[in-house]
Prior knowledge:
The longest helix is centred in the middle third of the chain and has 61 residues, at 2-62. The chain has 2 helices and no strands. By secondary structure, the protein is mainly alpha-helical.
Amino acid sequence: MIQEELQKLEKLALQASNKLLEISEENQQLRQKLSEVSGALDKKEQEIEHFKNKIKISNIVDNQPVNPEQSTEMSDLINNYIQEIDHLITYLSE
């Protein structure tokens, strides 16, 4: 009788141990996934900030009281600068 109870307890302890190991592995996987998603979110937030800055620069150029020819030149120049900055950011991100 006691032997049977001990065997049942041993079986339950083994099941609990296996379940703990399984949950621990799942926890590790979830932590890794969270880290990946968090990194992706940070990257997307940086991209959003970058695009907000582009919009601000475009608005500044559009609001400058200059003649249309100068405005076009300035807009092209700023767009070129933005493209160069984009290339540098991409290069530095790699």
